[in-house]
Every structure is written in C-alpha cells, then in structure tokens.
C-alpha cells in the first residue's frame, strides 16, 4: 500500500475516534511496525503545519489525537456562542401545545391525543429546552412526566402557564370537526 493511502487511513481513524489512539493500535490496524507508523504520523503533522490546516495531530503519552489548532480556538468560541436556529414544525408545535395545556403529561397520554408515536417530537422539544422531565408518574412502569420550561415561557412571551390562551368550547368543537374531516380525506385517498 502506498504512503498516501496509509495517511488517509490514519486521518480517518483519528477523526472517527475523536479521542487519543495508541500508536500500537494504529500500527496494528495498518499492519505496519510502530516506527514506520510514527514516521507517517510525524510526516502528516509536518504537512498539516506547512499547509496551516485547521487541525493538527497531538501526541499524548504514546497516543495520537486529532485536535483543532490553538490559533482556531477564538473562532470556535464565536461559532459556539451563536444561537442555534430552532425550527418548530407542525408536529413539534402540536406536541408542545399538548404538553403545555395538559402538563404534567406522559408520552402515552400525548400519543393517545395525537394518535401517533411522539418519541421524536418530545425528544426534540427536550433538546430545544422547551420541555423537561418533571418526574415520574406513580403508576406501573413509572412513566416520565413532561412539562414546559422557563425557556418555553420566554420563547412564547408568557409569564406563566396561566397566561396561555383559553379555548372556548365552540373552538374545541371546530378543531375536532376539522380533525375528523382531515382524517376522512386522508382515508379516502
């Protein structure tokens, strides 16, 4: 195998592992002796330094790890501090509204209302810090209870759950009728 291929494999290993990998393991994977493997890694380090690449290979007690070059840190900090853009799809909004109005609520209750699995939606809302686990229901299986967070209140401009709009019985019936009509249209297609 040519050196270029060995270097590509080393780069792939170090990138994929994300943590330090012992020279012995890298050499064993390549089928090379440790000296030849170390020489290849040193060549890669020198090439990357000459090219002023954004990453480097750091030696840590006989092991190697791919790391960001120190000169790049300030840019990493800038991008890490940028607010993440969150997209609330119709499914997420529907799930969030159920949690907001019914909290504390279990996934099973959410799924009963929605009629479909809600694992992904609930997990995404937790990831967005709009929903959190409030504890466990004192029932068989001890299912998790979910509720909204302060981030939810901030994001939707309400001071408390009591400030959420109240639906009139007429609106509830209209929503039910729309949902039923929608289900019939989907079933007829």
TrEMBL record:
Highest taxon in the source lineage: Bacteria
Localisation per UniProt entry: Cytoplasm
One annotated GO biological process: cell division
Keywords noted in UniProt: Cell cycle, Cell division, Chromosome partition, Cytoplasm
UniProt GO cellular component terms: cytoplasm
Family note: Belongs to the ScpB family.
Entry-linked PANTHER family: SEGREGATION AND CONDENSATION PROTEIN B (PTHR34298)
Known function: Participates in chromosomal partition during cell division. May act via the formation of a condensin-like complex containing Smc and ScpA that pull DNA away from mid-cell into both cell halves.
Assembly description: Homodimer. Homodimerization may be required to stabilize the binding of ScpA to the Smc head domains. Component of a cohesin-like complex composed of ScpA, ScpB and the Smc homodimer, in which ScpA and ScpB bind to the head domain of Smc. The presence of the three proteins is required for the association of the complex with DNA.
Protein name: Segregation and condensation protein B
Higher taxonomy: Bacteria, Bacillati, Bacillota, Clostridia, Lachnospirales
């Amino acid at each position: 195998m040519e050196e270029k291929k060995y270097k590509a494999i080393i780069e792939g290993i170090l990138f994929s592992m994300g943590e330090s990998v012992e020279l012995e393991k890298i050499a064993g994977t390549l089928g090379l002796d440790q000296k030849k493997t170390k020489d290849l890694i040193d060549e890669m380090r020198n090439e990357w330094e000459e090219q002023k690449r954004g990453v480097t290979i750091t030696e840590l007690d006989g092991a190697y790890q791919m790391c960001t070059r120190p000169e790049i840190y300030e840019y990493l900090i800038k991008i890490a501090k940028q607010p993440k853009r969150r997209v609330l799809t119709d499914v997420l909004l529907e799930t969030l509204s159920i949690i907001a109005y019914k909290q504390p609520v279990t996934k099973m209750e959410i799924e009963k209302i929605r009629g479909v699995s809600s694992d992904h939606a609930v997990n995404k809302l937790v990831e967005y810090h709009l929903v959190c686990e409030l504890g466990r229901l004192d029932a068989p299986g001890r299912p998790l209870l979910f509720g909204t967070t302060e981030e939810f209140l901030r994001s939707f401009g309400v001071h408390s759950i009591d400030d959420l709009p109240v639906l009139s019985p007429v609106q509830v019936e209209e929503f039910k009728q729309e949902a039923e009509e929608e289900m019939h249209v989907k079933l007829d297609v």
